[in-house]
Design the sequence.
């Protein structure tokens, strides 16, 4: 949801052992997820029930595995996931999530104390926040890129992992587009930052950008957004760095070997209204009918949808 530039996550590094102790919270469990030479440190904070600790660990592990790169790694070599419980009245099983750009980068997840495994698994927040590990800090001008990437992948990654039906993933993505279309317009997208009332446009115009790039890469250049980001994480990603959005997309083009991201960035960033996503939907064999999506079951569009929502 939010990528903060703060360097503090209440983390204390003692003798090479990472612990988290914030405002009286006790670290109940620390677990390391190792994947292909990368690792996530998962801290479950202030939870006394061992069975619930184990359930929260499994939830984080599934979400983290859903966001692994094509190489089987986590986007960053090292990061922390910190799970705390909350009594917020918000009905969501995960009322709040945040990515902090300190050293190390940390994903903070706040779960309802009464949230069960099924409700946590059906929630999008953990996958959204973990998807932020694919990019550096992009500042307010690049917020739409950052939140757009996480909003795109919160649906696609969950479909690939079997956490969400593939057709439902496309419905949710288009529902986001429709919320963005109803949001405030008039400002250029890159100038919106944290403008009050513009959140839906920022998130979902950004998601349209990444879908657009993915389609262009797959249909015109025999590659994919996944492949480009995989190479980017291996060559160039510094999760705690502060990078101008123009430099980020230029590096992606260099890694891809084709000019896709920067030209799209220039067009989307300058838009004063929500982008027209109808051509993207048609390419995917999708068509709106009274606000609902109709799915083609055969042809190039159906094959492209299947390629995007299945693991290579």
Sequence:
């Amino acid at each position: 949801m939010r990528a903060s530039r703060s360097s503090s996550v209440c983390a204390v590094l003692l003798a090479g052992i990472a612990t988290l102790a914030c405002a009286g919270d006790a670290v109940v469990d620390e677990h390391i997820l190792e994947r292909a030479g990368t690792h996530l440190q998962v801290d479950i904070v202030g939870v006394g029930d061992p069975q619930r600790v184990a359930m929260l660990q499994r939830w984080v592990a599934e979400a983290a595995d859903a966001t692994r790169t094509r190489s089987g790694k986590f986007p960053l070599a090292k990061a922390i996931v910190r799970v705390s419980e909350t009594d917020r009245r918000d009905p969501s099983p995960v009322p709040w999530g945040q990515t902090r750009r300190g050293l190390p980068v940390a994903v903070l997840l706040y779960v309802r104390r009464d949230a069960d495994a099924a409700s946590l698994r059906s929630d999008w927040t953990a996958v959204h926040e973990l998807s932020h590990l694919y990019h550096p800090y992009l500042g307010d001008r690049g917020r739409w890129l950052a939140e757009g990437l996480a909003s795109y992948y919160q649906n696609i990654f969950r479909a690939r992992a079997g956490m969400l039906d593939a057709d439902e993933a496309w419905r949710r993505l288009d529902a986001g587009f429709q919320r963005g279309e109803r949001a405030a317009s008039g400002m250029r997208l890159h100038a919106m930052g944290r403008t009050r009332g513009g959140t839906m446009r920022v998130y979902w115009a950004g998601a349209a950008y990444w879908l657009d790039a993915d389609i262009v890469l797959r249909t015109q250049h025999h590659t994919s957004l996944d492949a480009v980001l995989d190479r980017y994480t291996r060559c160039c990603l510094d999760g705690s760095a502060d990078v101008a959005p123009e430099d980020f997309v230029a590096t992606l083009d260099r890694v891809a070997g084709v000019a896709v991201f920067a030209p799209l960035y220039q067009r989307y960033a300058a838009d004063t209204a929500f982008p027209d996503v109808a051509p993207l939907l048609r390419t995917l064999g999708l068509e709106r009918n009274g606000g609902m999506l109709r799915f083609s079951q055969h042809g190039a569009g159906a094959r492209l949808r299947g390629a995007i929502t299945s693991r290579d």
Observations:
- The longest strand covers residues 27-35.
